[in-house]
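Check my protein:
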Amino acid sequence: MVTTTDENRERLRSAGLRVTTPRLAVLTLLSQGGHHTVDELTDAVRARIGAVSTQAIYDVLAALVDTGMARLIEPAGSARRYEARVADNHHHLVCRKCGRIEDVDCAVGEAPCLAPSDAHGFLLDEAEVTWWGRCPTCRASS
């Protein structure tokens, strides 16, 4: 879902957020795909716009997650990761060796696409599934 700078400006405005240089830079980077750590995003934003604090990046990411423009994933034993793929109920594959993360489309039907044996009265709207293993590169190197 690569979007243009103008599209990202409009997305920020539509979400009720002011268009700031750090917000625009982070949203543009996320829209290029992938699962990014705060450190990766901070380095990339600094390369684009110059000085920006790590706290500013955290604040931008919190606003993007709160407005539904970004998704936070937290693989066990790994840094938090952020992605822009939010309009669906996809899942993730994580390599135990190198940490590579790949998206996996929802396996069955619509969200939450999986149902627990007992929902305990909850109205379910999402399921998060993470599969763990070794990616093809790590398997080939061992």
The longest strand covers residues 91-95. Residues 62 and 70 are 9 Å apart (CA to CA). The two ends are 34 Å apart (CA to CA). The chain has two domains: 5-73, 88-141.
